[in-house]
Amino acid sequence: MRFGLLCGSSKAMLSLYQQIERVAFTEATVLLEGESGTGKELIAQSIHLSGRRSDKQFVAVNCGAIPAHLIEAALFGHEKGSFTGATRRQVGYFEYASGGTLFLDEITEMPSDMQVKLLRVLECGNFFRVGGSESVQVDVRLIAATNRSLEDAVQAGSLREDLMYRLAVFPIFVPPLRGRGNDAELLAQHFLEGLNREAATSKRFSKQALKQLRRHHWPGNVRELKNLVHRAFILSSDLLIPEMPPTSDKKIAMVADGLLDFTIGTALADAQKEIILATLHHYRGNKRLTAETLGISLKTLYNRLKTY
To answer: 179-240: which CATH number, 3.30.70.260, 1.10.760.10, 1.10.8.60, 1.20.1260.10?
Structure first.
């Protein structure tokens, strides 16, 4: 099943599609929380394309890829002569995206002093270019993303609490691939079809390959799957038999639409770890609710997570 730029038919993804439909035509700020490789930028694009700004700019910025001393100028622009090398006025990402959507990925990598300035822009809709004295007004729909638990990021000091509340007007938890049922096989076929079209070939997966795809834990999520399919496509002449990444000898739980499936013989310690981590994901990183649901103290939960 396709929805915008997304592909998947699991219950987790159907729930995600419903959330996108509800928020797309609003102006609410959206905060995407999910592991690396789960496709947060594609979700942000799908929100943009489903809303009233779809004919305007979609600008994606990775906050972790911009040096701390350059991020203010990158976001807000600068005036000529404002610093060494500033030979002309330069507009920033906010101005460039005005009228459309600005996607700030890895928001917790943004320096704290810049988070204060970002908060002001979100509240007032205006800012000053670096070295400038003239206020710049913009109209931007903001979508932010992080691969960290919001609670952990605030406690660690990498995300201001006031900014978290301002960004999370409409928070969306992005499910990991291991929690999406049979979507791994569906996505693998989708990626293979695209490669076949580009190369004018008709390669297909072997039955054994499909079985391996269904059982893999996918720590790298959709990004790992896409790269694996591409590698297998290059190496295979007809039937694709991907060389699966090495996995732990321990028997781990597989998650499918909210259910944990353990292999017989799984050690109790390993089963306990998977239950705790899956419950934490289910409650979007809320440790207090996770501890209450599991019937353990918050201190015990923190100790277990530190061990893991």
So the answer is: 1.10.8.60
* 242, 247, 251, 257: CA torsion to nearest 10: -60
Closest by Cα among 109, 119, 105 to 42 = 105
For 22, residues 6+ apart whose C-beta sits below 8 A from its C-beta are: none
**Full-prediction pTM beyond 0.90?**
no
Report how far residue 114's alpha carbon sits from residue 1's, in angstroms, rounded to the nearest whole number.
Answer: 40
Pick the CATH number of 254-307 from 3.50.50.60, 2.120.10.30, 1.10.10.60, 3.40.50.300: 1.10.10.60
Q: What is the pLDDT of residues 156-204, one digit of tens each?
A: 889 999 999 999 999 999 999 988 888 999 999 999 999 999 999 999 9
Residue 199 structure tokens: 């190369």
207 burial type by CB count under 10 A (0-12 exposed, 13-18 middle, 19+ buried):
exposed
Answer for the pair 208, 241: CB distance below 8 angstroms, yes or no. Answer: yes
Cβ neighbours of 67 (radius 10 Å) = 8
